[in-house]
Amino acid sequence: MGASADFPDWLIGIVDRQKLTRDRTLQHIKDSLTTNIAEAPTFLTGIEALVASHTYWEAQFGCLEACAIILPILAAEGGLDSDRSELWKDVIVKNLDSDESRVRRASAQCAGALVKLCGLDCYSFFRDLAVAKLKVFMVREEQPCEDGSDMMNGVEGEGAESPSSGGGTGISTSEMVLHDTAGWRALESYMACLQEIMKTAASSFEVGSEEGRGEDEELLQLVSEATEHKNRFVREMSHHVLTSTLSIYKGDLLASLAHRLATMAARGLSDNWSQVRMSASVLVRCLCQALSEANLKSLLPVLLPPMCLNRYYIAEGVRLYSQETWKLVFGDRGRHFVSEHLDDVISFYMQQAEAENHAVREATCACVTELVTKIDKAVLNQHVPTLLELLLTCFDDDSWPVRDSACVAIGFFVEAFPEQCAGSVDEILDNLYHNLTDNIPSVREGAAVSLKKFAAAYPDRVDDIFVELSSGLASVSQQPDNSTENDSMEKGPATYSVVKQRHDNDISAHENQTMYSCGSLAPKMKRGTPRREKNKHPDTGGCSGHSFKRPGQPWEMTDGFVLLLAEMSSLDSIRPRIDQSIVLLFSKVFQYRNFTHHPKLFTTCYKSLANLFTNMGKMFTKRCLEMFLDGLFYGLNLDNKLAQCAAEDCFVVIAKIIGPNILKGRVENFDSRYLDKLRFIH
Question: Could you give the CA distance from residue 628 to residue 654 in angstroms, rounded to a whole number?
Fold first, then answer.
C-alpha cells in the first residue's frame, strides 16, 4: 500500500509519538465503528499504509492496537483476503521480536485477533512459530560480550549483575546476566502469543482433537519447561498459557492431562514471586472448575496443600483470590478434605517452613494455627511433634512477622495439646519470654496472649511466670535517659521486615560489593539460628544476619510484661495471685519519665490498666485506684495524642466499673485540682 491510500486524515494520529494523541485516535476508531462498521475495511487500509511507512516503535504500537480493534469486526463482515492476511502475519512476526515490550504484547494480541478472522490455518502458523521460537530460546547458549553487556538475541539485561561487582559467588558471567529478573523478551513474547491464539481458538473452532495429540505433547513439554524457567516473567506467562490450554482441551483429553497440569500449577503456587503465584492460582481455579469431582479428587494430594497455604500468603491479591477459590471448589467441606489429606498437607508445611521467602514461612505458621483450631484433635494428635518442631524453629526467625506468627501458633498449640508439649515446656517458655521482650510491639502483644494460654495449660509454672513478671515490671528502672525506639538502627522503613543497623550505611561496607536487582538474589533472611547452628548451618551474613536482631530495651521489656499482667488477669485461676505487691510494681512504672519513649510505654500501661480493672472487678478497682491516679492524669497532659486518648479511655472504663460519682469523689480526695480534667466523664 502506498502513502496515497484513501483513508481519513485524522487516522494519521495513530502513528503519533505522543500517547495521548494515539489514544484519542483509537477512541475515534472505536466510536466510528460503533455507528458504522462498514468503515472497518477503509480504516484497515489506512493502518496498513501507515504501518509500512512508519517504523519507529510508537507507530508500530499504535497500528497494532488499531488492528486488534478492527480485525474482529472484519470477521463478521466477510473476513480478509489472503494477501492482506499474509501482510499482517509479517507485521506481527516482525514485532514479536521488537525491543519494546508494549509492541511485543500488542503483537500477541493482534495475533489472537487474526486467528479469529482467518481460522485454523492461521492458528497453526502462529502455534508452529511460537513452538519453534520456544525451542530455540529455551536451550540457547549464553554468549555475553566482553564488557559483560548482553549480546544474546532476545534478552534484555536490565538489572543484570556487572562482572566487576565481585561477590565471589562462583556464578559465571552469563548466568549473572541471565538471572531471575532479567527480561527474557523472546520467551515471554511468544508465550503471550500462544496464550492469545489459544484463547481465541477456544471460542472459535476445535483444535484439541486426539489427532493433534502429538503436537499437543510437544507444546505441553515446552510450557512445562517454562514453568521451571529461571526468569519469573516466563514462569508467570507459562501459567497463563496453561490456563488458555484448559479452554481447548476438554472432556477425556483434559482428564488425561490433568495430573501434569496440576503438577505444574502446584509448582507455581509455591513460587518465590507473587506474580507467578497469582497466575498459577488462576490456572488452579480454572482446572478445578473444568474437572469432574472424581477427577479432581485424585489431584488433591498435589493441589490441596499449596492451595491451603496461599489463603494466608502476604500478597493480598494472591490471598483473597485463593480464599475465593477455596470457597468455590470446596464449599463447606474444606475441613473434611484437609483431614483426609493431612499427611500431604503437613509434609508440605514442613517444606515451606524451610523456604527462603520469609513471607512463606509466616504463612506456614498461620496455617499451623488453623490446623490446631479447626481440625479434630484426634486426627491431628500424631502430627503434634512434627508441627511443634516446625514452630520452635520459626520462633527464632530473622523476620519478626514469622516470629510473631509462630508465637501465636504455639499459644494455641499448648492450649490444645498440653500433654504432648510437656517435654518442650522449658524451650517454649524461654521463647515466649524472648518474644515478650522483643523490640517489635506486635510481637510482644502476641507473646503476652500465648503466655496466658501457657499459664492456663501448665498451672505448675505460674509461680515461675510471676517471678519473671515482677522482674519485668521493674526493668524500666534501668532505662537510660537517651532511649530510642530502635537504638543504633536505621531510621528509615524496615527492609524485608528486619531493621538495619546504621553501620550498614558505612561506605566502606558497600564498596566493591555484589549488586542485586529487586532483592530477588539478595541474601535471604535466615531461619531459626540455634537449630541452624545445631545442624552446622553457618551464618551467611547479608542484610539479614542475626547480628541485626537486638534485645529489647528495658522499657520495652516492661511494656511486654505490662501486657502479660493484663492478659493473666483474664484467667479465673490467676486472679487471686494478682496482689498488692504486683499492682504496686505496675503503678511505679509511671514514675519513670526520664526517657524519650515513655509515652509509648504509658500508652500500653493505660490500655492494660483498663483491661486489668475490668477483669479484676469493682472492689479491686476501688482498692487500687489511687496508686494510678497521678500517672493517669499525667497522660491527660501529654503531647502524645495516643497516650492522651488511652488515658481518657481508661478513665471512662473506671467510671463504668465504680460509677462516675465515686470516681470523681476519689479524685477530689486525692487532689481536687484534677477534677477539672474529668469533664469528659458524665
Answer: 11
